[in-house]
Amino acid sequence: MLSGGGIFDQETVMIQTAHLVYFSPTGTTRTTCAQIAKGLSAKKIIHYDVTLPGDLLATTLTEGVVIFGVPVYAGRVPELCLQRFAAISAQGLPGILVALYGNREFEDALVELRDVVTKQGFQVVAAAAFIGEHSYSTAERPIAAGRPDAEDLAIAEKFGRDVAAKLHDNDLSMPTIDGNTPYRERVPLGGVAPETNRDQCTLCGKCAAVCPTGVIEVSETVLTNAAHCVMCCACVKICEVDARPFNHPRIEERRAMLLQNCSKPKAPTLFLV
Fold first, then answer.
1. pLDDT at site 98
2. In Å, how far are 1, 15, 125, 142 from 135, measured between CA atoms?
3. 95 part of a folded domain
4. Cis peptide bond N-terminal to 142, omega within 30
5. Residue 250, class by beta-carbon neighbours within 10 Å (0-12 exposed, 13-18 middle, 19+ buried)?
6. What is the mean pLDDT of residues 42-69?
7. Would you say 31 and 80 are in contact if contact means Cβ atoms under 8 Å apart?
8. What's the pLDDT tens digit per position in 17-35?
9. Helix H segments across 178-233?
């Protein structure tokens, strides 16, 4: 049984700690990672939520297993996410990669994440692509609405159990993961952002509180710096009075394409061997 690197508690033979490192503006990545951690049955679970801006202290992890969770933006891992993950390193701890995509394709996101965390000292032992409700999904144009659903979360928990079994079998092998290198060209984000309906807005400030780039300011009105918006739609999802519409023609065109071509529900894709 693996004992190096402090993976297992020697008395209980349980995984000591599941470290959850994730960027999750709308919560779907966080939810999926937590369910995988449940399947691992670790003695302790520690969350490292790097979604919001702020100073990240350099952290070197020395025991347990690490789950890295990211959303997929146009087939890649968001640059902002990679910048924040850079503060966390290890020396050979097992890593589990999780990508959430909106029912189109996850493309090169998992291999990109694999390459990044490997350079930071993690040994990738498993990876998975799950479906999460698309950021651009609306009631009128639902795209993977309600995902991850109960079936997805059951698969996530079983995936966690399967990874734990792999580790108990002394297997730290890296699985073959779908994706390409070089990665697909990164699609520029920003330039447009959700607007504020002043007639409906209550100036509660929740939109600003969940913005990963901190580009929303709320005072007597709501101001958004569209140049640095990553179009995650966290502010849209959090608004209880629907005062943050995102109906720019560029987004409406994208919604129409997704609705036409990506409506058939996909299943999670798992990589263990």
1. 98
2. 42, 34, 29, 10
3. yes
4. no
5. exposed
6. 92
7. no
8. 999 999 999 999 999 999 9
9. 206-209
Q: Are residues 70 and 177 in the same domain?
A: yes
Domain span holding position 147: 4-183+267-271
- In this prediction, residue 8 has a pLDDT band, given cuts at 50, 70 and 90, of confident
Same domain, 179 and 54: yes
CA angle in degrees (0–180, nearest 5) for 215-106-15? 90
Instruction: Enumerate residues 6+ apart whose C-beta is below 8 A from 268.
Output: 128, 129, 130, 131, 152, 155, 156, 159
Contact (Cβ atoms closer than 8 angstroms) between residue 64 and residue 42 = yes
- Per the domain annotation, does 199 fall within a domain? no
